[in-house]
Structures are given as structure tokens and as C-alpha cells.
Amino acid sequence: MSDAAVTRAPRLAPRLTAWQWARQNLFGSVADSILTVVVAIVFGWLVWHALDWAVIRADWFGESKEACKSGGACWAVITARWRQVVAGYYPEGHLYRVALAMLFLAVAVFPVVKRDLPAWSALLAPVGVIAAIAILGGANILPSVPTDYWGGIMLNVLVGLTGAIFALPIGILLAFGRRSDLPIIKAFSIGFIEIIRGVPLITLLFMSSVVLPLFLPAGVNLDKLMRALAVVTLFSSAYMAEAVRGGLQSVPKGQREAAHALGLGLLQTTGLVVLPQAIRISIPAIVNTFIGLFKDTSLLYVIAILEVTGVIRQALSDFSWLGLENEGYVFVAFVFWVACFSMSRWSASLEKQTGKEAKPAREPA
Amino acid sequence: MTRAPAKKPAARKSAAAPQAAATPAPPARVRPALGPPCVEIEGVHKWYGDTHILRGVDLSIRDNEKVVILGPSGSGKSTLIRCVNALEPYQEGRIKVVGCDLKGPPKEATAARRKTGMVFQQFNLFPHLTILENCTLAPMWVLKKPRKAAEEEAMELLERVHIGEQARKYPAQLSGGQQQRAAIARSLAMNPEIMLFDEPTSALDPEMVGEVLEVMTEMAYEGMTMMVISHEMSFAREVADRVIFMDEGEIVEIAPPDQFFSNPKHERSREFLSRIL
User: Fold this and answer.
1) Exposure class string for B132-149: b at 16+ Cβ within 10 A, else e
2) Contact between residue A175 and residue A248 where contact means Cβ atoms under 8 Å apart
3) Does some domain include residue A44?
4) CA-CA distance, B211 to B233, in Å (whole number)?
5) Is residue A188 part of a domain?
6) Could you report the per-residue pLDDT of B74-98, keeping only the tens digit for each?
7) Which residues in chain A are contacts of B170 at CB distance < 8 A?
8) Which residues does A2 contact at the CB level (< 8 Å), separation at least 6?
9) Which pLDDT value is given to residue A141?
10) Domain limits for position A235
């Protein structure tokens, strides 16, 4: 046939035009075509009605539900109370402190989002969180604002981030503890993880808020929010530990051996070789825990901490806004969805970034 | 010229060696002369549970010497070199590396371990680090070298194993042969006195075996002491001073390669050779 010395020039793979793609995937057979049309109609109808209600015929501003006359969503219930929605009952003249606190939180997250920073930048995370709490509380420099006045979306973000930032290192320690050869450390880690995982968060929150003070001496008064923060952090650290343990288990033994053969000590092997790989492998599980943690912040409502769900519930029980549950809960759902979906996208991009290097080392066949 | 890849303290190198190290591939390859004992293994026994893996191994390897260890799987050859590198504990006997006892006081044991480098069948490169970072990690953290010096030395080593242009890539982006050569460079970066190879070409596609053996052969002529587990006969014939045949946890036969391959003394060696040739 062809001359062996002549190699064939490479060609581009054939590509489908949009029309060919639709023919193949949407209208391949009569049944396919019917299904496509029916689903398109139902989906279009749903989207149209949702848009019509939420955007096109919606009323955005007003003093009470009387202002909403057009029959669509009455977002006035949110906008009229935007201050509570964002920051609870934080005093009006001090809202700049909320803005600063959010800035500190952004700085705290920065080393996580932006990679390739020096290792010390990880310290920004706890420092940022503590600075945010300090500026909100006053820290004896600014006028004190008790945590009872904190609330709204700000509080969800604060609790979620604080929980995440402190739960990760605690979770890593617990994961190592669970794999430790030292029986006491191992037993403690397993006990802690299993007890925390076996009890609903709501129960733990009630315990922290109601039961704990019963056991404390009369004078000692731990702040309710700080107790809740501690509970949320410990709760997610147990889940974090399991997420990280999965990663630790998937680092091949050869990695440890190679590090050992190069003369690295136990701590260096763990910190430089094993942990970075384990964390990369467990990124999806860790982000999953973050997302769960953020959604769980809505449970603070049951111990009378006015995070965004609580604020909305309060608004809905106001006489001038009675009967606007749809708007209220759609809004809360939207807030949580935006936050969680961003985290999920962020996780996907992290995985993509580390994809080329994070391939696990080949295991012996 | 930046620093030469000073592999070993010159004092311990015998007079015949240094010229071979200076040029990568001298036209006529000269075997460096053997020096004093480098690894001394005396009466080493090892058990896994109740399984007797090493049954009294005695072996002395001299500086500059290259030995190739052969044997069926389960013969204990892998365990033996893992014991020399302190990856496995042994229950009885003594192993000394350049005079330092592996079971000596902690300082001496650490010193002994630092004198050995290990190349694994599965490469075991660190996948989250670039090739260059793989080679600088231990020099920077264990030998406390400044990053710049460590990187310069690592680049020289990577050039020496002919993958300098791959330095900024991650292991998963390299072929198996390139990965194994990177692993060799990573070990060399710690300036070991002796290099241990645990079936370095067994996990490679056939067309990549040659490039790794070539690098190992170059190392051999540059005067590195080597203990190699490999069934690559051509490599053993060209490079080995002695071939060591192990079976059932014992050294059965030690002989120069020509003699071992053409005229094995022991029945078990003959049987083994008839199966692999």
C-alpha cells in the first residue's frame, strides 16, 4: 500500500456542529424527541414562573407588606431590614467595624485561596479570625458590643470561618492521633471522634447553652456565642479528622520509606511528604465538611443566636410582614446556596490546579 | 565552574578514582580500584513474625565495589538491602556502614543511615513536588543547605542523569525511565557513600530500561559503591565485581560475574540461572 517511509500527517479529530450534536443527543429517536420536547416545556414553564415571581413582578422596597401590590415576590421584607439581615442588631454607628471584621476574615481566608504563598502565611488564618472577633467585640479599646447584638449573615460567616479554620488543624491532629501507636492518644482520638459524630449538633448546642452553665460555678459566665463557636469547631473537627484520615491512608507506604531513606526525620516526613499529599487527596472531603459546617450555622438559631435564619424568622413574625414565609426562606436558601456553591466551585478549581501533581504515586502492582 | 559534584571526601578515595569522575564518559572506561570495607554485614538474622527471612548473612563490600544480588523472589535479597538502609530492623547480627554501626548509639546509627542512598523499584518520587524540589528537599532539611546551593547541586545531578530540562516538571509528567533517573539524582544529592538499588528497572517499560542502566553504569565507573538487586544480566556482566546469589535467606554463592553466569558452582544457582536465562 503506502510507502512505509511516509508517515501520515496528523489530522484534527472530527468535531460535531451544534446541529449534529442536537440530532445525536436530543432527537436520536422518536422517544428521545418527545422526551426532549416535554422536558424543555416543563423546565421552561418552571423557570419562567420563578423569574416572573422573583424578578419581573417583584416589589423590592417598602415599609410593610402593604407596599407590595404587584403580586410577585415582596422583597421589601428583606430590604427594609437589610441591617439586621447583614449584621443583626449591631449598633448602627459601629457598622464600619462589621466591614473591617469581614475584611479581616477575607485576609484570614486569603492564604487558603491563593496558593504558593510562604508557609508562615497560614498563620494569617487564626490571626485574621481573632482580629475579626476582637474588633466586633471591642477588645477594651473600642466601645464594647456584647455578642447578643451580633447577628445576621455576618454571624454565619464568622462562625463558619472560625469553625473551619480551627477545625482543620484539630482534625489533622485527631487523624494522626487515631493512627498513632500510643494507646492513650489513640483511644482518646477514637473516643472523641466517635462521640462527637454520634451526637446531633443541635443536642450539643443545647448542652453548651443550657446544660453547661448548670455545671459551672455561679460567677463563671461563658459567652453564649463563644460556647457555640467552640461546639461548632469541635463538631466539625471530628468530621475533618475522618476526611484527613482518608487522605493519610491513601498515601503509599513507599513515600514514607523514600523520605526515611533520604534521612528525613519523623516530623519532617510527616510535614513535608505525607501531610501535603494527604491534604490534597482529601480536598473534596474537607470542602464537603466546610459546606456542611456553614449550613449548620443556621442551627445557632435554636439557641437564640440571631444568625440570618433567626433574623428572617423574627421579621416574619412582625405584624407588618406576616405571611411572607416564601420570600423569607427563599432568601435564606439563596444566601446559603451562593456561599456553598462558591465553596464547591473553589474546591473544584483547587483540584484542577493540583491535578497534574496530585496524582498518587504508583503502588506496586 | 560551580562546585563539582563532590561525591565523597577525597581522603577516602583511592588514587585511581578521581580522573574517572571528572569526565562523564571516558573513551576507555577504567575501573576504579577497590578501597577499604564500606559495608560489613555479620551474621544478620531477621524474622517477620515466625518466618525466618535472613538466616545468618555475612557479607563485606569494599569501597568502589559493585555487587549485583540475584535470587528468586522471597530469597531475602530485598530485605537485606533494606536492612542496610535501616528501613527494616533485624534481630541478630551487625551491620556497619563505613565503620558506623546501624545499631549503635542514635548518633552513630543516624550517621550510618546517612551514608546510604536507596533507589526503589517504584521510584517513590514525591508527587506533590517538582523534580528539582524532590532533589533539594533532603539537602535543605537534613543537611541544612541554603536553597540556592542545594538547587545548584541538584541541577548538576539532574544534568548528570540527563534530565536537566525536566527539573521544573512534576513526577507524573515524566516517563518511568525519567522518573527513576530523577530518583537516582535525588539519592545522590545526599552524597551517599553507597547506593542501594532495589530492582530499579523492574517497574519500567522495556524501552526505558536501557537509559536507567546507562546512568547506573556511568555512576559505577565514576567510583560509586553499589549494591544492586537486578536480573539484568548485561548490567551484571559489565559492572559487577561480584555476583551474589541468595536463596531462602542465605548467600548461596559469591563469584565474579563471568564465572557465575558461565560456570555456577552451586546446584541452586544452576537451577535459578536455567530458569531466568
Assistant:
1) bbbbbbbbbbbeebeeee
2) yes
3) no
4) 15
5) yes
6) 899 999 999 999 999 999 999 999 9
7) 356-357
8) none
9) 85
10) 78-90+145-357
CB A309 within 8 A of CB A298: yes
Residue written as grid cell 466546610: A290
Q: B263: distance to nearest CA of chain A, Å?
A: 34
Q: In what order do the strands lie in the sheet with B92-97?
A: B51-62, B37-48, B92-97, B100-101
Q: Is residue A28 part of a domain?
A: no
What single letter denotes the amino acid at residue B80? Answer: L
Helices and strands per DSSP (H, E), number in chain B:
10, 10
Q: Which amino acid is at A57?
A: R
Q: Which of B226, B223, B224, B239 is nearest to B19 (CA)?
A: B223
> For residue A193, what are the CA distances in angstroms to A171, A196, A206, B72?
9, 5, 19, 46
Number of domains in chain A: 1
User: Chain B partners of A268 at a C-beta cutoff of 8 Å?
Assistant: 141-142
For chain B, state the CA radius of gyration.
Answer: 18
In which region does residue A143 sit, left (phi positive, over 0), alpha (psi from -120 to 50) or beta (all else)?
beta
Q: Residues with Cβ < 8 Å from A56, sequence gap 6 or more?
A: A72
Place of cell 426562606: A329
Q: Please report the pLDDT score of residue B29 as a whole number.
A: 67
> What does the pLDDT look like over B161-204, one tens digit per residue?
999 999 999 999 999 999 999 999 999 999 999 999 999 999 99
Q: Lowest mean pLDDT of A88-92, A109-113, B68-72, B220-224, name the range.
A: A109-113
Q: Sheet containing B116-119: which strands, arranged edge to edge?
A: B116-119, B194-198, B225-229, B66-70, B242-247, B250-255
Within-domain flag for A10: no
Identify the band that residue A123 occupies on the pLDDT scale cut at 50, 70 and 90.
confident
Assigned C-alpha cell, A206: 443545647
* Residue A115 confidence (pLDDT) above 70: no
Which amino acid is located at B128 in the chain? H
* B186 with A262: Cβ contact below 8 A: yes
C-alpha distances (whole Å) from B56 to each of B52, B95, B226 are: 10, 12, 22
Using 50, 70 and 90 to split pLDDT, how confident is the model at A114? confident
Are the beta carbons of A264 and B124 separated by less than 8 Å?
A: no
Residues 6+ apart with CB under 8 A from A302: A202, A205, A206
Across the interface, whether the CB atoms of A263 and B121 are under 8 A apart is answered: no
Higher pLDDT, B21 or A57: A57
**What chain A residue is nearest to B169 in terms of C-alpha separation?**
A357
Whether residue B38 has pLDDT greater than 70 = yes
Cα B126 to Cα B63: distance, rounded to the nearest angstrom: 30
Contact A260 B187 (CB under 8 A): no
Q: Which of B85, B137, B171 sits opposite A261 (nearest CB)?
A: B85
The CATH number given to whatever domain includes residue A324 is: 1.10.3720.10
Q: Rounded to whole angstroms, how far apart are CA atoms A277 and A354?
A: 10
Query: 536553597: which residue's cell?
Result: B147
* Relative orientation angle of helices B206-221 and B176-188, to the nearest 10 degrees: 20
Contact B141 A255 (CB under 8 A): no
